[in-house]
Amino acid sequence: MLKSALLASAVFVAAALPASAQEVTIRLHSFSSPTALDHTMHLDRWAEAVEAESDGRIDVQVFPAMQLGGAPADLVQQLEDGVVDMIWTVSGFTPGRFTGTQGLELPFMHTGKSATMSPAAMEFIEANLAKEMEGIKVIAVHATDGALFHTKGCIASMDDLAGKQIRVSGKYIGEAVKALGGTPVGIALPGVYEATARGQVDGMLLNWAITKPYKFTEVTDCHTEPSLYQTMLMTLMSQDSYDAMPDDLKAVIDANSGIEYAKKMGEIWDSQTEPARNVAIEVGNEIVTLSPEELAKWKETVKPVYQMWADEMTERGYDGDALLASLLEITAKYGRE
C-alpha cells in the first residue's frame, strides 16, 4: 500500500510539474570548419543565444566539419531522416533539392551586400518556395558577401577566362562560367585550397570573406571585381523537431530566426569583406575591375541561364516565368546591381 501511495504521489507531482521542466536537445551538423566565420560568428553564437534565452532548457550540440559522418551532400538527408535536428549547408551541395533557392544565385541577380541580399532571399523563399521547404523550419537563409573570381593570373575579359577551370558551388553559376568560356569544377570547400595549389583548378568563385580563414590568397594572385553572385547559406531545422517542442521554446527558436535574423547575419558577413580584401592587397595580389563595356558583355552573355532556371522550375510544377519575375522584382526592391 505504501509503495502504491508513493507511486501515486510521484505520478501526481510529475503531472503537476510545469511544461517548463521539459528539456530539448538540438543536434546541429555543419560541413564548415569550427574556426570559420560560419561557426565563430553564427552557429556557435546561435547555440549560445538559444541556450541562454531558454534558461538552459534547450541544449544545442554543435558538430562542425562533418563530425557526425557523411559528406556535405548528405546533410539534407541526415536532417530528413532525423539523424540530426538542424544543419548548416549551401543550396548547391544537394543537387536538385533546392533548385528554387538557387535562383537567388543566378549571375548578377545579387545586391552585392549580404545585409540587403539576405532579406531578399528570405522574402523570395517565404513568398514562393513553401513546397521546396516542406518538412523544414527555415531558421535563416542568408547570403555571403559578393562572390568573385580568385585566380592564378588575372581575368579581365571573357578571353582571359577561356579554358580556365574554375571551382563553383552550384549548378547555375557553373552554367554561367560555361557561358563565359570557362570550365566549372565542383569541389567541396575544404578541398579547394589543395586543388588550387596543385593546379587542378585555375581558381575559384567565392566571396571575399571566406578567403581569409581558408587562406585562399596564398594559392591565387589575382581577384576580379565586381562580384558575379552571392551564395545562399542555409540554416535549416527539421519541422518535426520544431513541432515537438513546447510553445514557449518554439518562441525562443522563432526569436532567433527569420528575416531580421538573416539581415543581422548579413551585416556580420559584410563586415568581413574589407578585412579579407586587405589581406589580398597586403600579400601583393592584384585586384582588377571589369571595364563597363566588358561587364555589360558578361551580363548579356549569361542571360540564357535565367531562362534555363525558369524552365527547370516549370518542370518541377511551378510557373517558372512568374517565379523569375518575382525573383527580379524582389531583388530589385532590395537593390539588385
Describe this structure in words.
By secondary structure, the chain is an alpha/beta fold. The chain folds into two domains: 24-145 and 231-271, D-Maltodextrin-Binding Protein, domain 2; 147-230 and 273-296, Bacterial extracellular solute-binding protein, family 7 (D-Maltodextrin-Binding Protein, domain 2, 3-Layer(aba) Sandwich). The protein is globular and about 60 Å long. It has a six-stranded mixed β-sheet with strand order 7-6-8-5-9-11, sandwiched between helices. A five-stranded mixed β-sheet has the order 2-1-3-10-4. Helix 5 (114-128) packs antiparallel against helix 12 (258-271) and helix 5 (114-128) packs antiparallel against helix 16 (320-333). The model is unreliable at 1-21 (pLDDT under 50). It has helices spanning 2-16, 37-53, 75-80, 99-102, 114-128, 158-161, 171-179, 192-197, 208-211, 239-243, 247-255, 258-271, 273-282, 292-301, 303-315, 320-333, and strands at residues 24-30, 58-63, 86-90, 136-143, 147-151, 165-168, 183-186, 203-207, 222-229, 232-238, 286-289. The chain is built from 16 helices and eleven strands.
